[in-house]
């Protein structure tokens, strides 16, 4: 059975220790403690070892880029404090104190190679840093926001309005009918790459209603949201979404795509889906196991109903 707690980027989370976020004296002492674990990002990409995991720094990280924004992510199972730092986009690795120790790697590539806890910490840090970058000014008065509560809140310096990190709910779904499932592709994807359909939840609707609406808008397929089967969810830091996966029995199978959303869509049998997942299909391939789409497709392909 698919479980959200085992989903890549969500598995093996640390204790967020939220009660520490407002204790500035404790945080300052903790990040300088020899037990501190600090990960680094640059433009959303993590600094990784040649073996593929995160390069975990101690308090020496504070000397690498003094003044860089930092977050308190929580405590690991030993109680060690875990932090993240975002280095400037123009940070020159070659001329730095950490030259030769590792590399900044594209997050998608890096996350596929990381142990579960590393991937969860890096994903959380990426989402938070990207949110702060896009919310540097107050939506109420336009004033400058400051990072507070160890990175888990922003507050306007002018009017005092508090802003909290945003997570966007996204429905990602597989319509199924008569032993076939609907997959589609966007025009900028590599040739042969196909996946589940997906879309953002809108105000005033449930996530099941969003899944049904998006299937009709993108592919012309009618589904009853009351029949939606929940599979699992996954935090997705591009920049910060919660992907909620569903399988929906379809009431129709005639495809009418919205060319603004999809380049093409097609129905595939279970046998074809198994070949796609196993990399044996002659022309099609799907998202890797780091993405929830892969798991939704796999759940349907390898069961009998």
CATH fold description of the largest domain: Nucleoside Triphosphate Pyrophosphohydrolase
What portion of the residues fall into strands of 2 or more residues? 25-35%
Give average pLDDT, whole number.
Answer: 96
Low-confidence stretches: none
In the residues, how many domains can be counted? 3
The biggest beta sheet reads: 6 strands, mixed
Described by the principal axes of the CA atoms, the overall outline is globular
End-to-end Cα distance, whole Å, is 15 Å
Helix/strand structural class: alpha+beta
The run of helices and strands is HEEEEEHHEEEEEEHEEEHH
CATH architecture of the largest domain: Alpha-Beta Complex
Question: C-alpha Rg, in Å?
Answer: 22 Å
CATH superfamily of the largest domain: Nucleoside Triphosphate Pyrophosphohydrolase
Reading off the top of the CATH hierarchy, the class of the largest domain is best stated as: Alpha Beta
- The helix tally amounts to 6
Share of helical residues: 10-25%
Q: How many strand segments?
A: 14
EC number: 3.6.1.22
Family: Belongs to the Nudix hydrolase family. NudC subfamily.
Organism: Hyphomonas neptunium (strain ATCC 15444)
GO molecular function: metal ion binding; NADH pyrophosphatase activity
